[in-house]
Write a structure and sequence with these properties.
alpha/beta; 6-stranded parallel β-sheet; oxidoreductase activity, acting on the CH-CH group of donors, NAD or NADP as acceptor; ADH-like_N; GroES-like_sf; NAD; oxidoreductase
């Protein structure tokens, strides 16, 4: 990979109308149906980072499967790269990045879609450079795509399989130099699972890191059937999945969650029994306390006031106040395999931000958006040519 990065050539795209994110359900019929939450921007047609109100409507649109040549793997590819730490401006679209080599226990994926996470931005900003891989870096943790090459020790996956996963086993400890915001990426077989049959690539790409974080966080609290939970930032990438996993997988007796006014209906559609408008109500002042508080926004000092004595508080970001605790997720393909049945049955659904998917040429704009901390669900990049 070159250390000297060319200036990217970006092309503009018209703002779509309406914007929508899909909550996909599996049906016995061959035709997949979706629940979409759409938003129609007001004023100028150009994209804006201002908040977009949501409404519910029906849709059956889906992202098309990529056309993949399984025999002709190029030596160079297009990828987003940064050669120094900093703001969004350090990102460049490089058209001559070497396609990564495949180790014995890895597969090479033709990337169809990728997703952004807060950790992507923090990594690019140099917030854990002491344990980072060398620069220059191709960012990206979440991936969905097609296997085009397998290593000699790969046991289950084969060329042509449609897969998804979080390609970094440890988020902060030596994450891969070649990430998912590229046409190809190499990743260990153990971090991947077959893509759920009812989801398209864009929907699948928005799941891995967030759903693994939600699942591991619940497991670490000892969450189980009959317990109650409060989810802070229930409309975010992780929070939207904590609501669903707590209810559908772990058997929560009650799920409460916070969001802004316009996203309360989304929380209810995901399974929240109590949707709390944080602009009008302080959750810590509620008379009811919870067995677990899952803080996905960085308000641990307030979260500990809403937990029952002896309960647990998971803090994903910000300062940690006892009895709160933090963990760094470990990527495991086995977790995705375990949850695939819930995804394919429609009990657990991906939530994609209504401003996306962003095209591959607008990864820098997608980063600017996710760094506003106003995204709903996941910010997805699709298609990747």
């Amino acid at each position: 990979m070159k250390a000297t990065l060319p200036t990217p050539h970006l092309r503009s795209f018209p703002s779509p109308t309406p914007l929508s994110f899909k909550l996909s359900f599996a049906f016995p019929e061959t035709r997949r149906k979706s629940l979409s939450v759409s938003s129609t921007p007001k004023g100028t047609p150009s994209p804006s980072l201002a908040y977009v109100p949501l409404r519910v409507s029906a849709s059956s649109q889906a992202a098309a499967a990529p056309t993949v040549n399984l025999t002709a793997i190029p030596t160079e590819m297009k990828a987003w790269v940064y050669g120094e730490y900093g703001g969004v401006d350090v990102l460049k679209l490089d058209e001559k990045v070497s396609v990564p080599e495949v180790k014995e226990d890895e597969v090479l994926i033709k990337v169809a879609a990728a997703a952004l996470n807060p950790v992507d931005a923090k990594r690019r900003q140099g917030k854990f450079k002491a344990t980072d891989s060398p620069l220059p870096t191709v960012p990206g943790y979440d991936v969905a795509g097609v296997v085009v090459k397998v290593g000699s020790r790969v046991k289950e996956l084969k060329v042509g399989d449609e897969v998804y996963g979080n390609i970094n086993e440890k988020a902060l400890e030596g994450p891969r130099q070649f990430g998912s915001l590229a046409q190809y990426t190499a990743v260990e077989e153990k971090l991947l699972a077959l893509k759920p049959k009812n989801l398209d690539f864009a929907q699948a790409a928005g799941l891995p890191l967030a759903i693994e974080t939600a699942y591991e966080g619940l497991e670490r609290t000892g969450f189980s059937s009959g317990k109650s939970i409060l989810v802070l930032n229930g409309s975010g990438g992780v929070g939207s999945l904590v609501i669903q996993l707590a209810k559908q997988v772990f058997g929560a007796s009650k799920v409460a969650a916070t969001s802004s006014t316009g996203k309360l209906e989304l929380l209810k559609s995901l399974g929240a029994d109590l949707a709390i408008d944080y602009t009008k109500e302080n959750f810590e002042d509620l008379p009811e306390k919870f067995d677990v508080v899952f803080d996905a926004i960085g308000q641990c000092d307030r979260a500990v006031k809403a937990v029952k004595e002896g309960g647990s508080v998971v803090a994903l970001t910000g300062a940690v106040t006892p009895p709160g605790f933090r963990f760094v997720v470990t990527s495991k393909g086995e977790v995705l395999k375990k949850l695939n049945s819930y995804l394919e049955s429609g009990k657990v659904k991906p939530v994609i931000d209504p401003r996306g998917p962003f095209p591959f040429t607008q990864v820098d704009e997608a980063f600017s958006y996710i760094e506003t901390n106003r995204a709903t669900g996941k910010v997805v990049i699709h298609p990747i040519p």
